[in-house]
């Protein structure tokens, strides 16, 4: 899939984390941290399998969740030392952790109440919103608030922070003799919620990640110190927990509840069913347990991390400035050790009591200390190596059991991939920090973080300069893609069906490149093919077909020439050149800033404009054989080549296909045999589009006026089409005239559109005439509508708002225009600022007019109106346009090439000699001749051959018409007799030249025929002579 997708990966210079060279550099990184005093041994709470006696990763813990797992849920009381009659109530679903309770935690901002239970006279403290926990009746629909006074009495209300520091009586005295202990007091933290329980959480730091964090912060436990934990690796209580020693923790829940009940400390007991993690190996319940771990002191270098983060450039920036910055600001010390077999072993050799430790930073150092030289650094090789003790001669140091977390290895990648500092020192220094990296949003807390921590700790530098964060690709239903659920299509099948380029561009032109999630839709990949690749290919094919045709008709090769491109003064050519150069400039700037999410939409938009506008508006011109046609083809070639090179990184395969065809027209193509890979690279000579540099933009061809003018043209045409649609006027039916008002355009743009682009607008909208209205006449077609800006004027006017609003609405076009121009005017006795206090827009002034249909662009800068009146001349022209369209469809159906000549014939069903359609054709001969290179469709009675390429019955006007296209044939004059006609019909039109004479003898009688009199090279010439046209 990697190869098929077109990803360039350097496998020859790759690295593997299992290679000894990589592992040795990881050792060096760790030793540097150790020597800087940034490493210590502490505890980390992790998912733990008591059956296997080992911690699991979070990923492993998520492999085997079981729904509806029953567990006891208990509420326990904790009497305050300051007033033993008052007890705090805590709720837990793990009674087995209560023997390890060291503190209670409340939310500092949550509201707590001291209540008197009227049934027992007990006094309790719990969250006000969690009273229903101890009074379940409050959850029922029938319960009314006034019934609370029958259950309890509220004696006092607290904020959680007011309870902090209070001490309470512990449930058990197992740790009462610990030296210098500060256990059994109330702490606070915002992780406490009121969605369940009592709003008070019991803290057992040996068995909860938040418990550990909160207790460490409060000084209940200390970094590097032991944690009270009466449970061994098999989940069995040790002798420390004398009441339950030897019991499995999950089995002891019932006994603990019984003991607490006998002490009067058990307030409530229930059974809940919830989702619970089980060991994927042994299928036994997991617990969370503090295990010894090696830590990097991230908190100590936090300010440096934040400073280095500011030196980097991220796309999108908010991930750096918010998500990652907040993560760094709240960063805790990083546990880098894991209890596994595979992985880079932590290079610490220590005595049994951990009083003597040696951190090894290289293979050579290990040899010097142990006398054993190794070539592999995995556990099976080095775990048996011992280092003689320097403190206690005669004893040895052994390697600790742990290996590095894989994230420590990935964070060491910049150094370890080059085996730094053992080799490649200069190469590393030249390439560090990295210019650019990219990964998913989930790596904010993963790779991005570990890279930053290690580079800051080692060199006080960021590890990279630029970073693109991509979002996650989800299944179409918004869930994570899952092999188990099979909720996504096979990538290989998608690639085989739509092509690798379509998949690439679908992903690159999606929210993923803005670090947002994408719900993968296969239809989206198909959309790229239909909306981007097919139009792009059609423009390419159109160019190549017409280059071939032009070369044949002009009798010379088509040679790309930038001079001819730059020399064209055709307004659409100038626009396309300016648009292309602007695109190149834009792509360079955005790619420089790594903004893929702006580049792709612009490239896709440009292809749409190229095909839907330039090619469409110039189709007839580009099909010509004169110099103007060549100039247009030169411009189109130059643009397609630039677009192909620019899109090559995004769509490498189809770009390569286009390039291999386009390059053949370049003069340097002849030099390819001399070395297409050699410098300097150039289009034509270079073997691949991927060897070319992105094109640089030509400042001299940038033209803001041309680009702005063409945008106006696009708006006019869009409005014109909409106006036609409102009146149900087909675009095939011409309109007599249209009016255009450009109230906000500059003089340059107005002149550009009205002089250089007017013919294109007329052609596209099938209008016989177009009028651009002057400023002096615009009031006849448009009106400025005014409304007060209520947000600004509301406070200023008060009760006068209604009258001022009426005054604004009543202003004439000229009054409004004058007020806007001067900046202010008096309305109903109030001076109004028309720049800041009034909302204005141009509207169509002839709304409801039966003759004119208008439209206003949403930007307010273009207003148009079309004349909707019909007359016989318009109808005839419309019918002829329909005939042209159907002939083109027949050519396509027959699979004809652009250069293939045909003759077209028609017959009205039930009519003779063309019927009423003949008059329409006769009045529009020039239109047909221009479109079909001199050929005019004729009544079928004038056809000389029975061979038909393609035929169709279509409705033109309200009449069914049969139209067909036939190969060119000699057309015989109506006056010629039947026997002579039979002879002339045998003559191949390819052998006939203008004015030629033919002789023949039929039944002994000699005949002479002259081309142009008795026979013709085509039916159109004959029709003109015989006055059919």
Key terms:
single chain, 1029 residues, 40 strands, 35% helix, 20% strand, elongated
Describe the structure.
The protein contains 32 helices and 40 strands. The protein has a six-stranded mixed sheet, with helices on one face. Strands 2-1-12-14 form a four-stranded antiparallel sheet. 35% of the residues lie in helices and 20% in strands. Strand 18 (386-388) and strand 19 (396-399) form a beta hairpin. Helix 22 packs parallel to helix 24.
**What's the count of strands?**
40
Total of DSSP H or I helical runs spanning 4+ residues: 32
Give the overall average pLDDT. Answer: 91
> What is the SS-derived class?
alpha+beta
Helix content: 25-40%
Walk across the major sheet and give the strand order.
8-6-7-4-3-11
Shape: elongated
